[in-house]
Specification:
Strand order of the largest sheet: 5-6-4-1-7-11-12-10
Shape: globular
Number of helices: 15
Helix content: 25-40%
Strand content: 15-25%
Number of strands: 17
């Protein structure tokens, strides 16, 4: 069992996420800071740890080069244009700094759809494995030059957790502008750092602030807790540390400051992938009895469905919510939306007449469903 930050950096395979506000300052890269981070990463590599970097910064760098207002985030077109220019600069920056330490950088650009689709997810997994086997350091970013709001993560915290799943990593280290999760806004008097979290519950989520203090990045504490949930489903440990000082990893180890999130369960590879998907095509509302049955490991039966929204087809991801709106689970629909509407609330003996064919055993089978 991982007990502290020192054990995080003893992982076999570690994903390190770097945010825009740490990498870019005053429209320019923080060269000295990045060099110190790369020295930290090199020490880890020399100790036998395989490293994957998830790096923000393309939009910020590209916006500076193009002279775009609002850091390139004034519109989708601005963000995509900034990313197109900035991705070249970001890749070159990492290649230069890693190369100075004798390491080879490899760029991977991903969209949400690449990791939502099972086949593309496995392709990404195979590429990461081969790069690590060859001794390279994969540097991953969201492909903002082509991604729209509907097909993007929107923050690299969750992308880091997803990449960790795909890569079979043991741990994720999020470098942030704060040194971890506090029991309230860290700017408030008396706010206390929480050093260890066993599973991200509703109470834990309530402690989060949704904003990023820099105004440059897109991920606040909420996205970091969502990342911890995603990592936890795959049995992956996640930690948040401050990245504001030079040699940020060494400093975190020296002080022991940070928040360690321990997984409270491991769902297995396929269910971890399923639970980490973030773009459901529809929502199924269920009654109280059905909600209790799902928590006990049952499939979702049509008789328990009391509400339907969205436009989904068989095999699409759907969200399952309780009467009070609580998100209970998500899974793959066994029916198109029209057929679910036809049989919702009906017992199995009444479903064939409505459908015109023999009904399947469940609307969402438990083998293709994960509790959230």
């Amino acid at each position: 069992m991982v007990a502290d930050l020192s054990q995080i950096v003893q992982s076999r395979r570690l994903v390190v996420k770097v945010g825009s506000s740490l990498l870019v300052e005053g429209r320019k890269p923080r060269d000295a800071w990045l060099e110190s981070l790369v020295q930290d990463l090199t020490k880890l590599r020399e100790s036998g740890v395989e490293i994957i970097v998830v790096s923000s910064g393309a939009i910020a760098l590209g916006a500076a080069r193009l002279g775009l207002d609002k850091g390139g985030r004034g519109s989708l077109a601005d963000a995509q244009a900034a990313a197109s220019v900035g991705q070249i600069g970001l890749a070159g920056l990492w290649s230069e700094k890693l190369g100075a330490q004798g390491l080879t950088a490899a760029q991977m650009l991903l969209t949400l759809e690449d990791l939502e689709d099972r086949r593309r997810y496995l392709n990404a997994s195979a590429t990461l494995a081969r790069l690590l086997e060859a001794g390279a350091v994969p540097v991953v970013n969201e492909n903002d030059s082509v991604a729209t709001d509907e097909i993007r993560f929107g923050d690299n915290d969750r992308l880091a957790a997803r990449v960790a799943q795909a890569a079979g990593a043991d741990a994720v280290l999020l470098l942030s502008d704060v040194d971890g999760l506090y029991d309230r806004d860290p700017r408030e008097e008396g706010a206390k750092l929480i050093e260890r979290v066993d599973g991200v519950t509703r109470e834990v989520m309530a402690m989060a602030s949704d904003g990023s203090s820099s105004g440059m990045g897109s991920g606040g504490m909420v996205s970091k807790l969502q990342a911890a949930q995603m990592a936890g489903r795959a049995g992956i440990v996640l930690a948040i540390i401050s990245g504001t000082r030079e040699w940020p990893i060494d400093n975190a180890l020296a002080t022991g400051r940070g928040t360690l999130f321990l997984p409270h369960r491991s769902d297995g590879a396929r269910k971890a992938w399923l639970g980490g998907r973030v773009a459901p095509k529809g929502t199924l509302r269920v009654d109280k009895g059905c909600a209790e049955a799902l928590k006990g490991g049952a499939s979702l039966l049509a008789a328990g469905v009391v509400g339907i929204s969205g436009n989904f087809q068989r095999g699409d991801l759907v969200s399952i919510v309780a009467m009070n709106g609580e998100v209970l689970a998500q899974g793959l629909a066994e029916y198109d939306v029209g057929d679910v509407q036809a049989i919702a609330g009906k017992r199995e003996v009444d479903q064939a007449e409505r459908l015109g064919y023999a009904p399947r055993s469940a609307v969402v089978h438990r083998d293709h469903l994960v509790l959230l």
